Amino acid sequence: METVWDCLVVGAGQSGLAARYHLKKRGWNYLILEANSQAAGSWPNYYESLTLFSPARFSSLPGLRFPGDPDRYPARDEVIAYLTHYAKHFELNVATNKKVTHIKKEGPLFLVETESEKWAAKTLIAATGAFAHPYIPDMEGYINLREGSYTPVSTTTRKGLKTSV
Which residue in 20, 65, 139, 164 is a FRET match for 1, CA 20 to 30 A apart? Predict the structure, then answer.
């Protein structure tokens, strides 16, 4: 941990990559730490048929237009390609496969640890998003479908329709 960065950015999804634009514009030395193997945030982990909820014209990151028809809704693989191209196009300082395990403030610095390395920075941007560990509220009758088979908790009738929950 010899280098003290002006800024460490945790997460190389849209927010983390966009932060780079402003950091570079200010002349700051920065490093983006990404837990996954590429600069695309959580997008590679989403289902294939996912599309952006907004047209391409509103989905560009600073400094590089989202390619193609501006009125279309880009699919998951197009978003991944755009984000990885963005990182390469601007030669971003992204360290992949660096899952942050601990962050603490010590004096004027943030100390950031992964499983094998440590970094220090004057500022920190947390751009991890909520998709790696989504918050699932405790709800009566909630069933975690990822853990096994589905068994209805209750059946209710509403306006003549039966619904299983």
Answer: 20
Position 92, amino acid: L
Tokens of 132: 């790696």
Closest CA to 87 of 28, 29, 27, 11: 11
Q: State how far the Cα of 148 lies from the Cα of 157, in Å rounded to an integer.
A: 26
**Residue 104 pLDDT:** 93
pLDDT in tens, 77-89: 999 999 999 999 9
pTM of the model: 0.76
Report d(CA 116, CA 17) in Å as an integer. Answer: 23
Q: What distance in Å separates the CA atoms of residue 69 and residue 56, rounded to the nearest whole number?
A: 7
Residue 148, pLDDT score: 47
From 4, 16, 28, select the one nearest 127 (Cα to Cα): 16
Under 8 Å between Cβ of 33 and 100: yes
Rama region for 74: left / alpha / beta (φ>0; ψ in -120 to 50; rest)? beta
Contact status, residue 43 vs residue 59, Cβ threshold 8 Å: no
Q: What's the one-letter identity of residue 41?
A: G
